[in-house]
Amino acid sequence: xxxxxxxxxxxxxxxxxxxxxxxxxxxxxxxxxxxxxxxxxxxxxxxxxxxxxxxxxxxxxxxxxxxxxxxxxxxxxxxxxxxxxxxxxxxxxxxxxxxxxxxxxxxxxxxxxxxxxxxxxxxxxxxxxxxxxxxxxxxxxxxxxxxxxxxxxxxxxxxxxxxxxxxxxxxxxxxxxxxxxxxxxxxxxxxxxxxxxxxxxxxxxxxxxxxxxxxxxxxxxxxxxxxxxxxxxxxxxxxxxxxxxxxxxxxxxxxxxxxxxxxxxxxxxxxxxxxxxxxxxxxxxxxxxxxxxxxxxxxxxxxxxxxxxxxxxxxxxxxxxxx
Amino acid sequence: xxxxxxxxxxxxxxxxxxxxxxxxxxxxxxxxxxxxxxxxxxxxxxxxxxxxxxxxxxxxxxxxxxxxxxxxxxxxxxxxxxxxxxxxxxxxxxxxxxxxxxxxxxxxxxxxxxxxxxxxxxxxxxxxxxxxxxxxxxxxxxxxxxxxxxxxxxxxxxxxxxxxxxxxxxxxxxxxxxxxxxxxxxxxxxxxxxxxxxxxxxxxxxxxxxxxxxxxxxxxxxxxxxxxxxxxxxxxxxxxxxxxxxxxxxxxxxxxxxxxxxxxxxxxxxxxxxxxxxxxxxxxxxxxxxxxxxxxxxxxxxxxxxxxxxxxxxxxxxxxxxxxxxxxxxxxxxxxxxxxxxxxxxxxxxxxxxxxxxxxxxxxxxxxxxxxxxxxxxxxxxxxxxxxxxxxxxxxxxxxxxxxxxxxxxxxxxxxxxxxxxxxxxxxxxxxxxxxxxxxxxxxxxxxxxxxxxxxxxxxxxxxxxxxxxxxxxxxxxxxxxxxxxxxxxxxxxxxxxxxxxxxxxxxxxxxxxxxxxxxx
Lengths: 323, 521
Prior knowledge:
- The structure holds 2 protein chains of 2 kinds.
- By secondary structure, chain A is mainly alpha-helical.
- Chain A contains 12 helices and 4 strands, in the order ααααβαββααααβααα.
- Chain B is built from 19 helices and 22 strands.
- The chains are: A mainly alpha, B alpha/beta.
């Protein structure tokens, strides 16, 4: 009868599986779904390198936003405006480029993210509106502004260099978007797990009162994570714009749900305090995998939506069922 | 660092400290002197000013007037940061730990070790925590997540965290409420150790037996003023209670215990077992009877209560209410049978803290107060006012938000909420945890009153004096089973005349403790 808590012995393999399967079930789920599609769709080109790289290309924007969403959720907050902000940033980037060339376009896109993020942060921390409501309202505002300034038309991007670097290009067979995903993943993981900022984010979400009593400025943490998601959403919007060589308000529409689902699938708690960046990336890839497989299966869009929703509910239900 | 010298030097000197909140004087020229290397008990009823003076010391509140010196140095600009720098640490009830981080991560939260790249180095934190634990004789795995720890382990982790930050004055506010008696022993051992190292400990508790056991000196406050500061050896429990309440009173021993007049058999359990706990319980409770349930945390006491209230499923055995077998699948079933539960965790299970007194009291009797789904405000207010009057709840009005009332009054509201439903069987789970001695005896007296009004009562408590004051029979639970049944009169001293004088209570407590120890072997 040894007490697992006071026992100083190294954790056993079984103990490790028991204690961390909630965090790690994503990997198992990923493998199972991958195998399933590999077997059933192998002859339809699922396993071809072109298709697999395509999945990475299609999920890169979700991955980039999911990295930042991990921070927001871990801090006990939520950001529903990411999809709309991505669309708005794609428009401002394209319009900025039209006015002042590529550098000004990039500046305009990033400023859009910064501005929206600061607004979200100020409203949530200074006025005290829950981030759920702030960002829900911001979702509509961002989309409205994007539609208004672009007169609901696509704004073309003519710079080949921009389009290559932000999403369209590839180095040999490797798409540039893979590098974007990887760099967000590595930096995000290090910041969350190995910096004081990351530790404070996890603390604020784990027990806000305790964090404050420990001398952590929890409002400042909330403010910063909300700026982070908006900035990441702006980058995602710029990647969309680069890939499609135009900025449109529809880009990123509905992405907030995929992004949140990716983070939750990856083991991040909606109640705060827990989160892994790598898990969120895996979650994003898994959603991409499911989309891709369903398309190859020849399902109609309506059927895809239903199947995707069902699979996400199933996966989250399994990962939540801990006790 | 010789203990002799450090025990005479003053760690904290608070001189004529006053503090008012919105015109109400919470502290009126209070003096508090705490020596290095002593355990100093701070005592008083709810609202006596204990937590205010501690918050002033911790820098949470600023005093309106008065002088604070820490280790001889006057403190000018007082803030939480300044207090922490000066070495003042306060253990809030499980408040300063992050459940989702590990023990080591919590101990060094905001003081993280970094490697040469400036990244957090958890390995060093783990080995440093291990050293600290070893040094202090604590056996906790630094890699464990805090939400896996028991309440006692959390408490020790918090204290170790405070110590690691060079705390010279450690303030503990009701540290033992969530602990088992083993854990309390360990905590006390531990406090003795850090006291030997010259740390000053301020200990706040409503449990008199603990104070007598651990404190060196005590300061008693009443209504924001000093009553007395004295070595504990010069005080008795009776004297302390008298100082706290302000009138001569025997506290719990004042409660009248009429001889048992058993009525109808209201609740009967035959071989009742739950999923995990309790196991194989046989119990009969009559109208007019108070049955006490003793045992450690986790012995299945609360599980029994939950089962009887339809919160946990019955796995085998049968439950009879007033002679009829009942099937309790959800709390509504239990309520329909006239069973009421006053739960253990008042804040989470008992009251809706941001609702008014009336809304809380009305909640369990909505059926009676409403017609076609329409609540009659008149009847709701009448009912609330009746409970406020009957239970002597101190509240400005029935409209007051429960959060603004003291712990004792909140607990009375939970009681009132259930008494309004006129239960036949009343189950109370630790009804007086964290409540001052005055309200405590009021609540226990009320329990007796309810029994003599014809209620069958089950009282779960960790406090022996409380069980002795209230109960006719006491069952002792261990690992989900009843290991012993003690009739209250077995514990009476031979020359007792049932008047409940305090010497009798002390005699009974000693005998009870013996019986408990035997039962647990």
